[in-house]
Amino acid sequence: MEDAISRKEHDEFVRRMQDEHKRIHYRISDNEKKIDTVMELTRSVERLATNMENMAKEQKEQGERLEVLEGRDGEMWRKATGYIVTAIAGIVVGFIFTQIGM
């Protein structure tokens, strides 16, 4: 029975195995927390990218609507100016015709 170990050696072996088990469990738990953090960060980045894409689309649509509105104001100004020029030309032509007796 030379291969037999004492109770003290056995208890020491069990204690070391439990300590090793705790270290491994802690490492696994720590790695799982890190993985969860990375996964949450990945989801956040995906949401951010989606929001940025939606914002870019909305900004493009607003830009197009703004161009239409700005064009409408310019078109109205051109029409008003055309009407004024036409009225002045009519007055001038009318004045000329009245002066020459027509």
Structural account:
- By secondary structure, the protein is mostly helical.
- It has one helix at 7-99.
- The relative contact order is 0.03.
- The mean pLDDT is 89.
**What is the subunit organization of this protein?**
single chain
Helical amount: over 70%
User: How many DSSP H or I helices?
Assistant: 1
Tell me about the biggest sheet?
none
Please give the number of β-strands: 0
Query: Which overall shape is indicated by the principal axes computed on the Cα atoms?
Result: rod-shaped
Question: How does the SSE layout of this entry go?
Answer:
Elements: H1 7-99
Which descriptors would you attach to this protein?
102 residues, single chain, mainly alpha
Structure described in brief:
With 102 residues, the chain is mainly alpha-helical. The protein is built from 1 helix and no strands.
